[in-house]
Amino acid sequence: MQKKTSIIIVISLFVFTLITGFFSSKLEFDYDFEHFFPQNDEDLDFFLDYREAFENDNDYVLISIGNGNSVFDKTFLEKADGFTKELEQLKHVEEVLSPTTVKTPIINSFGFIEVPLLHINDAKKLQRDSIRISGSNEFHKTLFSSDFKSICIVVNNTQIITKKASDELLNDLDLLIENYNFKELHYAGKIRGQKTYLTKMRFELMLFLSISILLIITFLYLSFRSLYGIIVPLLTVLIAITGVLGIMQITGKSLDVMSTLLPTILFVVGMSDAVHILNRYIEELRAGKDKITAIKVTFKEVGLATLFTSLTTAVGFFTLMTVPIKPMQDFGIYSAIGVILAFVIAILFLPATMTLLPQPKIATKGSSKVFWTGFLSKSFIYVFRNQKKIVIGYFVILIISIVGIFQLQIDYKLLEDLSEDDPLQQDFRFFENNYSGIRPFEMAINTKDSSSIFNYETILELEKIEDFLYKNYEAGFILSPVGVIKSLNKATHSGSSSYYNIPKNEQKFNVLIKKMNHLNLKSKLSKIVSKDNKVCRFTGKMDDVGSKKVKQMNIDFDNFFRNEINTQLINYKMTGTALLIDKNNEFLATNMIIGLSIAFLLIATLIGFIFKSIRMALLSIVPNVIPLAIIGGLMGFTGTTINMSTSIIFTIAFGIAVDDTIHFLSKFKIESQRGSSFIYSLKRTYISTGKAIVLTSLILCGGFISLIFSDFKSTFLIGAYVGLILFVAVITDLLLLPVLLMMLKKK
């Protein structure tokens, strides 16, 4: 009967794997910054309305082409002009702004005319153009680099471009760039960023799994010295991973920068269950029990503890639901589902295979047992003899760690995930060093008394704001109503750059506005002024200085606005994709405390219920909070900032690290109930469970350490710090936890 049931289970899991494997093969990759915007947020609602009124602030590509020396070279400019005209013909391109096609407006008695910014076909005029442009701040670090050795072409693509259209445009763009073969070329934008991230995500998904599998096979071999001890745990976990990926596809979830970590995390976490069960099964066989009895004892004693550890790990992931950001919530949900699924499969698949397969040969070998028994016996004696030293040592380390924690800071940069030698990052830096940067800057300004933006007093206030943005906020390439009026004034004075300013009196200003209305120029301002003239847009570019500095800059701007601007006339609101990403980063950092608190409470409650003891619940939390504090202090001392990536490290690690504590306490409870003395029960627990938690911790650490091979800084940090936390946690379980139990016994 047992054999028949086992065959049915194995066949059922095989069918389950085939079905979910089919769906998981259809999973798509997705990387969209907007998915990381905070949900149900007033700033997001404002931005969506703002974007609807004007345009999206992130649908562009900046292309810089250089000639090696000065860009005012006829041959180079002709080549650039040809490149520009072909850019305009590309599918999904709406507008191209290039120095070779830009026209300078002139308003005279004959009306409105446009003169080329650069007279490419006239050598004398081109020379005059170069002198005029070089001496004007109007074009500095906008369409021309700071050293005038390259020009910038702005390509505005389709608004809210789809992934398919984005890929098509990027492919066409790459082909066109390759055909022209400029001496120097740099380009950056949303479509290239998405492609770069997606390409790396696909590669790293397989890389992490491969490294994890290789490391874990090595650990399993060294631990069990048996093909049986390698294949059975691997199959157990791979079935669970395939199942979760299939469930993701069925429920309409794509793989993003967070969920690509799922297979690796589930692989190492699921392996922990399999190793604990397999290790206990082999121990029971070595104790002389027959195969069926060994299976029953194993799942009676370890199975319940494994259920509890799976629940605590799932709780750790579920706490990410407190973060109002969809990819984080999805990551938490599917990780928790995967952990529970891995447990269910382990409980079904392992006893079935144990029943059907012959008794593993390793069960008759004793060398490994002798090594572990000797090593752990010596460790236990050391702990027993040095209780005070261990407590004092941890206390000192904890104090030092708290000092480091207070040095932690919240900060995030848009492309900090990429290494400095990445081509996209290098192009990003080029635009920061030679132009106005590539981080979008957006600000909305509205009039308070229903007057027009083109009121003279209002424009003067807006001019103060624009001056502050250029000089103090470090923004550049700013497009605003102020620039429009300055350009209009310049146009009425034969295009002279000395008139690129606001008229000195209201009368002259009103003449300009009448000319603008008469020539029907307002229709060209739809991207920066609302139809009713009551709201305007300041849009530009700036360096990616980080969310911390931007936050301080926004505080400084607010102080300037309240003290220097007539707030009876106008009001303002910062907005844009960059601001929302900064806010998202701060959300995650602050929610880390909430998530950890919820995890502490839920897991302590669960452990208290298991052991029916509040003291035991509190005791189980202590050896798992200390590793978090130690790593938090290390992050503070090393200057690692709290951001989107590092904020989830502690929640993930805590849910996983507490598993070893539960296994230890569960075994101790079983030993104590057998009537043995306290010290004997503790020593038996230390030796029996010690091996399993060391092995599983090595597997967990190895699996997470595989993430350090990532090109993404965030993934690297998650791998390194979670691995370190788990390593410190197992050391703490072997050193401090027995001491705490002995202290509790004395009281």
Features:
747 residues, 22 helices, 9% strand, Multidrug efflux transporter AcrB transmembrane fold, four-stranded antiparallel sheet, TATA-Binding Protein, 4 domains, alpha+beta
Describe the structure.
With 747 residues, the protein is an alpha+beta fold. It has four domains: 168 residues, Up-down Bundle (Multidrug efflux transporter AcrB transmembrane fold), CATH 1.20.1640; 137 residues, TATA-Binding Protein; 204 residues, Multidrug efflux transporter AcrB transmembrane domain (Multidrug efflux transporter AcrB transmembrane fold, Up-down Bundle), CATH 1.20.1640.10; 155 residues, no CATH class. Helices cover 64% and strands 9% of the residues. It is built from 22 helices and ten strands. Strands 2-5-1-6 form a four-stranded antiparallel β-sheet. Strands 8-9-7-10 form a four-stranded antiparallel β-sheet, sandwiched between helices. A hairpin with a 2-residue loop joins β3 and β4. α18 runs antiparallel to α19. It is elongated. The two termini are 51 Å apart. The mean pLDDT is 84.
Describe what is shown at a glance.
This protein is an alpha+beta fold. It has helices at 2-24, 42-53, 74-89, 123-134, 163-180, 190-224, 228-250, 262-286, 291-318, 326-356, 367-385, 387-405, 423-434, 456-471, 481-491, 506-518, 547-564, 577-611, 614-638, 649-673, 678-705, 713-746, and strands at 60-66, 93-97, 103-108, 111-116, 150-157, 184-189, 439-447, 475-479, 535-542, 570-575.
